[in-house]
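If your schedule permits, I should be very grateful for your opinion on a structural question. I have a record of one protein: its chain in single-letter code and its fold written as discrete structure tokens. Kindly check, if you would, that the fold set down in the tokens agrees with what the sequence suggests. I remain grateful for any guidance, and I place the record below:

***
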Amino acid sequence: MSAPPSNPGPVRAWLLAARPATLTTTLAPVLVGSACAATVGGFRWAPALMALLGGVLIQIGTNFANDVLDFEKGADTEERLGPTRAVQAGWISPRHMRWGMFAAFGGALLCGLYLTAVAGWPIFALGLISIACGIAYTGGPLPLAYYGLGDLFVILFFGFAAVVGTAYVQLLEIPEIAWWASIPPGALATCILVINNLRDRSTDVEVNKRTLAVRFGAGFARGEYIGLLLISYLAVILVVVRELAGPWALLPLLTLPLALRASLRILKLEGRALNPLFKTTAGLLMLFCLLFALGLRLGAP
């Protein structure tokens, strides 16, 4: 991976702080949720696009919050093994990063107002909870990431909330297929977090960041990664077995070779050598969900 620029300039600094490579974790579940809506004949462009925009803004706001709050807690130092953080590198001041966080979350609230007009107050409540958890991921009196709750957060919000919420704003109801289809995006997004926690476990200990990789060790983290991959493929098979979609929904099984290669790599790699696996796993997430969304649509009973 190429080294980050020492002085990227203000526009690129904000772009790097937004971590565009991570935004597939928002795009993927919205695609799957929209495919679920289309499967039962209720796809609507405007709510789908607004759900996507709102989700992206919440994630960018969470990334900004993570950048500044981890820096202030001392978790981001020159010893960091992952990509350079904007505040830690001095590209963006903590005050400006906080304003960026508020702007992103404010934009998400505006999207939420539209979706509330379309689908009612439960969507607005879900948006507020998502924003609160985005801040609480590394901030507040109980930062989720510091207590080993980050994995649960990712599964719930990038899986269940994103897929089910996207389907709901289009259908005004939750079809059974949306619950099952939400499992792979959430599990695969959590795989990305697992790599992060596995790589950073030695530095996380120093700042009392008790991720699951810190609490239970590297072997547990590697097993969690492989287990989440298996759960993703089993969920796809169950969708077909339960006759919620036809055999086309098995298209994601075509990504099994990529998942196998990723599993073999996480068993061997350590530290900074894990960084390229982020891109591999993010690509797997996107390809899996693209094929899943296509398969759901083609395999509608």
Observations:
- The CA atoms of residues 20 and 267 lie 27 Å apart.
